């Protein structure tokens, strides 16, 4: 009997069918098509017929049936407040206020802290003009949930609508005892202002700033008094705010508003005194807006020098205070010196800061500690050269710094190079060369060699550049970048024999930091010269040192590029790929073999006439999932590649192993039979 297939392609066992072909379909179906087909195939929705009630008996039956449905609903899910609200709303639509009230009370018995029930209940009472009931209900709500501001707002609004101003004020006072958020206090103040109760509003502000002692609260109070035209009260409020907040919690906006108020009152000197007082006491991080406002104020009412002097004095005090805690904070010294450079009219103050800073040198011979200290000397020398225009003093700074550094332990190439370029700018090339030569003699470094070479290249003195490169490779023969740059220099000067000799000398070095860079540069050089035999020879030498798959692929692509005809080109490349495949197979490099085969396949595809893609495809591995045991004893799944030729070789090895095992068993059986015969004899 044939299997009965269920809708959707599921069989009797309710198991999903196995999909054999998981490739993408030729024609793809979009989500838009699926939605459109579902909409077109959906049936017509049957509408519930409207029911007309013609007499009282039918109305009673309808109401009884609906009440039964609602009661059944709230009985099944008593905690579903939405069902209670629908029930009460329906009773209200039937003009059954008592029943609706009863339902709301039952809902409050279920959840006495539900805000929606209270709001709907109060709206019911207010719609039916049951003022006392609504008042009692709001009183219950604010008693049970005093932190819900919505009840208080509605309660006071209702009393205000009823012209019960005293009752609304009493409710506000009850609310303020709970110390609510700022919006509640603002609502109380607006209420008092609507009825022109200025003294009451001031009393509310007194309580407001006590509960919320923040700058914006004081600013609101000051704005209130300013609107009433009480400047003395405004000044008193700002003074109380400054005293109450203190320096720890002081906000710059208090001073800004205070100063702007004085400007509006035409008291410019008062405003300037306020700005100066604030800038002297507030830290820099908290006074940026204050400084900007002070700048705008002085642009309008004062001069620039006064602004810069005030700000500079404030920052000087901050720097001095910070340096008292850590006199070797060299970043602070640098900022301090830059400040003096920007504001000082004479250079003595700036020099004094630099001299004080460089006197605090590290007492430990640790280059990490000296690094920021050296920048002080560099900035000092640049100041003397570019700002003060005193070349002699700048040279003295460089000389003193060079004499201070313990060059036997460490040195700073940046100092020597900047000193040399300083001499170049002064037109004294000999002094620059002497400085760098002294540096290389005392403490040679890679960066010093590179900087000296760059300087000589700028001067176009190639003989000196060759000499420096020779010294450089003697100093650090493992640096491949140096060899490559030296060879590129000779190539740029069309000294090909020198370049080849350099490359030959470089590859013979026993230790190199990046040999792949050197070999690539050498091979590219010979390739650019058109010496393909030498290029093949270099590839051969490189393959004796490494079996990296990229080298094999590069050699094969080289053969593809240099042969005369397409067939010969592909034959030479195929030979390289076959040698590489055999070598990587011997080494057991799976990932490298896969990369090689992919490159080989692309090479075969590049020549449609002579290429043999099928032969390469036969060698392509298949991806399998395997497990391996970790150090902690757990198993880990991973993917591996199985090559066809490895499987054939494995099968032959298994057959030989079985034959060898059979031979051993046969020999053991023959020996046992011989021993038995000897025993019988």
Number of strands: 2
Biggest sheet, open or closed, and with what strands and sense?
2 strands, antiparallel
Give the distance, in angstroms, between the N- and C-terminal Cα atoms. 72 Å
Strand adjacency order, main sheet: 1-2
Average pLDDT reading: 82
Strand content: under 5%
Helix content, binned percent: over 70%
* Integer-rounded radius of gyration: 47 Å
Which regions are unreliable across 5 or more consecutive residues at pLDDT < 50?
1-6
Shape by Cα distribution: flat
Query: Structural class, from helix and strand content?
Result: mainly alpha
Tally of separate helices: 33
How would you describe the overall organization of this protein?
- By secondary structure, the chain is mainly α.
- It is 73% helix and 2% strand.
- Strands 1-2 form a two-stranded antiparallel ribbon.
- Helix 17 (330-343) packs parallel to helix 19.
Give a brief description.
With about 675 residues, this protein is an all-alpha fold. The chain is about 75% helix and about 0% strand.
